[in-house]
Design a protein that fits this description.
The protein is of the alpha/beta class. It is built from 13 helices and 17 strands. Helix 4 packs parallel to helix 5, helix 5 runs antiparallel to helix 12 and helix 10 packs across helix 12. Belongs to the Gfo/Idh/MocA family.
Amino acid sequence: MTDTTLAPAPGGAEGPRTRDLRLAVIGLGLRATLAREAHRPGQGSRVVAAVDTAPAMFARAREWFGDGVRLYGDHRELLEAEELDAVFVITPDHTHEQLATELLRAGVAVFVEKPLAITTEGCDRVLEAAREGGARLYVGHNMRHMPVVRTMRELIRRGEIGEVKAVWCRHFVGHGGDFYFKDWHADRRNTTGLLLQKGAHDLDVIHWLAGAYTERVTALGGLTVYGDIDDRSGQAPGAVMPDWYDPENNWPPLANTGLNPVVDVEDLSMVVMRLEGGVHASYQQCHYTPDYWRNYTVIGTEGRLENFGDHGESAEVRVWNRRSREGYRAEADLVVPMPSRSDEEGGHGGSDPLLVAEFLRFVREGGATDTSPVAAREAVAAGVAATESLRDGGTPVTVSRLAPELARWFADGQG
């Protein structure tokens, strides 16, 4: 890894200074805003180069990073020309594996947007490349920085509901028609399926809250609505999701037009999981609900908790840990409101800036992080197994385990 320390300040009064980390971003689509968040010239990090296969996207790089940003059409050109401290890989899911492995083997620290890869074997190859190259790997599971998730985890660790025995998650993807069925996401060759692509976040959170990874799954689901839409004309070349997002007019779901030419991923899925240590979990995902939010319910030996809203001023976590005399009791025993943060303060209720800050600190200093490449791999592994089960009529599938020596390498802090 490149040394980021400069000579001591004159007289040594202020101690050693550090130069800006030299960053690059591969992929200038929607989530490239993460790299924009990291561009803080003179404050510790700057984006010096950008890569995209579509030259039309270069204008965005110049707008965000200045006219001096160096632009490339291929990541190998980038590696040959630049001395970099870290690279953001913000590209379609099926490209993550190749890009990450080549960068890591070159010794460059890598931020990979979730999911880590679209197959379990692909994830393992990325992890092995990090070990071979001795490079730091970080995966963009920003939900671990969302206040509502962190609050639930803290309440669990505090013992408010006893020992966790079950985790349930319902994910209402109200904008699914706009977000996932009009571009590459709709083609399983690029994602494996939305149970993996979209579910990687929730599966990771389930594992984090339960303190255990999935061992065995069974799932059902199908392409139940969007498969009935005949308009598969797609979107204009170079367009990204905000260009066609229209929450006012694309309702009801069958009114959507301009779907991707290939639509073969499921829009409804339901998974039942057995986790390590006897914890059980379930995950439901629907892409045509009128609302867009997710609800986690965690049940322990001494109570349960739920989130109401996942970010925004109205989100809160409620805990019931006193027995009710009658039926449902709306009044919780403990209510924890979330801080008043909005997407204007950073994407996903302020979690994106926290995610980027942790990555940059990790690049510079190493040490523990709240995200985990191994956990990212386990979320993919659970999603792959669940998709296999779903497409085989619900046949139970055992989740593939990571090689112990590779798991130990990451547990030791990536070397």
